[in-house]
Structures are given as structure tokens and as C-alpha cells.
Target: Cytochrome c
Amino acid sequence: MKKFLMAVLPLVASLGAQAAEQPADSALISRGEYLAHAADCTACHTTAKGKAFGGGYPVGTPFGVIYGTNISSDKQHGIGAWTDDQFVAAVRDGVGKDGEQLYPAMPYDSFTKMSRDDVLAIKAYLMSLPPVAEASPKTDLPFPFNQRWGMTFWKFFNFKAGELKPDPSQTAEWNQGRYLVEALAHCGTCHTPRNLTMGMDTKKPFAGGDLGSFVAYNITPDKVAGIGNWTQAELVTYLKTGHVDGRASASGPMAEAIEHSLQYLPDTDLTAIATYLQSVPALADDKQPGSRSSFGKPSDGYVGLRGQSPLVLAQDPGRALFMGNCATCHGAKGQGAGSGFGAYPALFNHTTTGAADAKNVVSVILGSVNRRMEKGDILMPSFAEDLTDEQVAQVTNYVFTQFGNPAAATVDAKQVAKLRDDLGQRRPPVVLEGDKL
Model:
């Protein structure tokens, strides 16, 4: 009997090891892929030209740059050697493989609301992909922010662990929308203002956030500051395509969220998101004088420019710059061209030009728009190397004066210079007097 056990036990152990190493079934991997899209894992863990989930994406923060880690199946540089518990702890609790505290650039304050099964489905999907044998750049913040143990104090004030449970008094659609908005899609990470410790201000959920070079707008049902005058169909279309005629066109981080995440969700999920957002408390903003999509009208500002001398044009540089750089796509009257997915958006009745802050328009002029969509790419070139800081300020102020909220037409070259630096955009080459044509 002893000899029999000695012969059989190694075989049993071998079969057990093989069973443990069997890949996850296709249904689990498929769900993990869907969840990874919904959670927008690509955004922070894949660089523009890098391999999927190989890390290295720089996330700018007020304290320095934090680099997204390699979460591919690579055993040395990625999560290939991580246990299920280690992966769940990182995603839901902000604790790394070796017990180190993670920075909240990883939105575990939202992901903590995910179910363990969903987190492990994402892990199964990541493990099914090819490994990326590359080390991510090391995050090296200045003192005292490089002391990760200090994050325990941040968590004390800003982190409440716990899975989000369905509300039995609400519909299945509402609960699905809540789970997507509050947990998976972590909408509050961008659209909720921050408190003094840079945690989400839970007293003002979805009232709008400052992302440095962009503003994440108020997405509560307030009819002036938020999305209260949007229809559900408009919200679904925007989340799916990034554009709604007479409302908005996505740029910056929102364009990235649509490109990498929201466009892949079924319409039922997008409808659920809209249903939930339309149910949260409406929060006003005193800085917003009217509905952001209500400002402006077509302008005849181009009339009188033809045949004028450079001296006359110099007296109204914003108008001349607009006609020379913007009117080709957006129309001389700012009316845009086309409709639907591939439209060049009108500059009036647009939530960006109707905003109280011109930051997003400046950042778009400098940084471009590039939404890579399944239906096709939506492109706007960068003018960073064509226009000086002063010229960007002039054309921005012209756009807001003619087509948007005139109160926001207060941009100066100093503000543009800061946004240019934040975006890492180059300045145009200096033209010497003798080089002018």
C-alpha cells in the first residue's frame, strides 16, 4: 500500500498542478474583456505606441508624474506571477503585490466597489493575452510624496472599502448604470471635484473636476451647469460616438474614455449609465451663467476681411487667425459642416465654447483631437507649432466672443504657455525679422 501511494501521489500532484495551470474558460475571458473595456484599463496601462497593457503611460498629477504599470501576463514585469488575492488587493484596496501602498492615480477608490468575481474575470482576460517583457518607467515623486506609507493617512480620510450592492428598490437598469458609473467606469474620478487632500469631494458627486489641462464638466441633471437638458438618446449617442449635433464633441480625456472604453459597451449599458446619471442630485455652479449648449449663433465676422491690408488685419488678430486656421473646417460663420458621427462641429450651441472656463478650447487648439473609433477616426490637427501663445489666446478669445460664452474670453498668453507646458507641446520656431517673406 505504501509503495502504491508513493507511486500515485506524485501523479495526483502533477494532475492537480496541470489543472491549476489550465487557462480560464472562454466565457470568463470574454467577460473579462468586456469588463476591462468598461473599466478603461487601457487608458493608464498602455502607451500610444506601446503594446497592450505593457504600462508606461504617464499620468500627470499635482505632485509629479505617475506611470501606469505593466499589467500584462509577463511573470517578471507584469502580473503573470501574481495570485488572485494579490491582484484583487491591488485593484480594490490599493495594495501592491509586495504590500506597498498604491497611489490613487489607480482609481481603487472606485474599483473597491467592484465584485471579486469581476476583478478576477479581468485578470483572466489579461492572462490570456501575450506577455509584454518590458519594465515600466519607475514612478519617482519628490519627498514627501515618494513615501508610499503616507497613503495610509490618505485612505483614512478618502477611502471607504466595500463592494457596491444592488438597491432592491430600484430597477435592474438603474442598478447596472450605478455599477458602471460608480465602480467600473469610475466616472467620479474625473467628474467629481477634489478636496484639500486630493480625494473625491463626496459632497459634490459629478459636479465637475479639474484635470489640469482640461475641465471635466458637471454631469449632474442640473439644467444650467450639467446635463439636465440632454435627452437620454443624446447621452447614449455621445457616449457611443463622442459627438451630438448642437451639444458637444469629445476631446481630451473624455475622447480617450470613449475611444478606449465606452464605444465598446452595448447600448443597453450606455442607456443604463444615462438612466443613473439622470437620477443623481442636480448640483448647480454659480460660475456658469447659462446652459453651456445655449450660447452663440452664426457670426458674420468674416465680412470685411477680404482685401484688407495687414495693418487692418493686425487690429483684429483673433478674427484673422480664425479665418486662416479654423474656418476651413468649422465654417466662416462657425456653423461647422456635416452632421452626425463625421461632422465638423459647430462652434456655437456647443458645451465647450459655452463653458465658463476656456481651458478646454485652448488645450484642443494646442493638443489636437484624435478619437480612433470603430466607425472611423475623428481628427483635428494641433496648432501648437503654428501659433504663438499670444495667437492662441487671441483666436480663443475670438471664438468665445463670437460663438460662445463671452465672459470666458479672458485668456492671455501666460495661461496658454502654462497649458502648453502641461501638454508637452512644442512652441513654434522663432522667425527673425530678416526671415519674414
Q: What stands out?
A: Residues 110 and 183 are 5 Å apart (CA to CA). Residues 2-20 form the longest helix (19 residues). Strands lie at 58-61, 64-67, 209-210, 215-216, 243-244, 248-249, 369-373, 376-380.
